[in-house]
Amino acid sequence: MVRPAVGGGPYAGRVPARPSPAVRRAATGEESPVARTRRARRIAAALYDRYPYAHCELDFDSPLQLLVATVLSAQTTDVMVNSVTPTLFGRWPTAAALASADRAEMEAVLKPTGFFRAKTNSVITLAQAIVERFEGEVPARMEDLVTLPGVGRKTANVVLGNAFGVPGITVDTHVGRLARRWGWTQETDPVKVEKDIAALIPRRDWTMLSHVVIFHGRRTCFARKPACGACPVTRWCPAFGEGETDPDTARRLLKFELAPGAVLPDPPPGPLPDET
Asked: Which residues carry out catalysis?
């Protein structure tokens, strides 16, 4: 069930709570580890409330499909990947079939995603390794996944968390950017960012945390002009004010299902933290 966002959306006219001086000092490194953990978990809780429907936005029916789709998502959108994978997996449904695929035929299928020749080579090489080393089945352990060609910790965590139910933190562009904006880490190396986030958030929540942070980065907390005035985590964000703080103007910046006039999912986006 869905409902339209009328009258400017669910957050029309709400004035966000401003962060305290103590939170603003977090950006300078003056925050204690205990305070940082407490603040990070409050941010996470607010995001769980805002995006209760957050999920992996790549369509898949098996670990193999998710692994291949994640590899294809480089330098393109999940929507674009989802537009080609039904044809891809309909034509080559198994690792063995992908491994022996005709390159020209696969290139034609993958062309809309960009860099289609390199991606065709990546898919075929990856599938061959799965067939040769894992009997055609995607392994369910980090130490095995990262030995596959083109698979790093980010891709492995996507597959483990969403196809196998093994908690993992997916440090993509959005997760790394927001973790630094929130003062959770000062690192730029994804492996170090993952380690710093893991120290703040309970392991059982790692996969859902990845989803809600990615959703937030795509819908509200943009790189160049975050919609601070329509953000549910402002009271704990040391970067509040980097973007638009006026609630009405910020609301117009929201994207996807949060955009004014958009169709909201069920459950709908959650309330701001100060809404009772």
From this structure: 154, 172
